[in-house]
Write a structure and sequence with these properties.
- By secondary structure, the chain is of the alpha+beta class.
- The protein has one domain (about 35-120).
- The protein has two helices and six strands; from the N terminus they run αβββββαβ.
- The protein has helices spanning about 5-35, 100-105, and strands spanning about 35-40, 50-55, 60-65, 75-85, 95, 115-120.
- The strands form two sheets. A four-stranded mixed sheet has the order 5-4-3-6, with no helix packed on it. Strands 1-2 form a two-stranded antiparallel ribbon.
- The radius of gyration is 21 Å and the shape is flat.
- The termini are far apart.
């Protein structure tokens, strides 16, 4: 049997902490994916049905808008806009304008489906 030197012990501790973080991330993702969003009225998409749906049953839309070229060196490009989601009950499009919903934009992978949409 051999003794671990200090770096081996530190590496083992780091690996153990990474495993704990990974487990907590999975736990958080499971809780968030079961969170429910309410389909509601919003401009410009109109009236929602009012029903609640789990995040993992919804389609998330990543909107992009066009930025025209500026000056001599700035090229045209698309920037990411606000997040939208589609109600699975009535296909109504909802905007993520509530602060608590905006947090979910960091968890796009928890939605059933993710689509990209670009301005024309």
């Amino acid at each position: 049997m051999f003794k671990l030197n200090k770096t081996d012990a530190i590496d083992a501790e780091i690996k153990n902490l990474e495993n704990k973080i990974s487990a907590k991330n999975k736990q958080r993702d499971k809780l968030l994916s079961n969170s429910k969003l309410t389909c509601r009225d919003n401009y410009p998409y109109g009236k929602g049905c009012g029903l609640k749906t789990k995040l993992n049953n919804l389609t998330y839309i990543i909107t992009h808008y066009y930025i025209p070229p500026r000056g001599c060196s700035g090229g045209a490009y698309y920037a990411e806009g606000e997040g939208n989601w589609v109600c699975s009950h009535c296909n109504h499009r909802n905007r993520m304008i509530d602060d608590s919903e905006k947090v979910l934009e960091n968890f796009k992978h928890l939605f059933m489906k993710v689509e990209e949409e670009y301005d024309e």
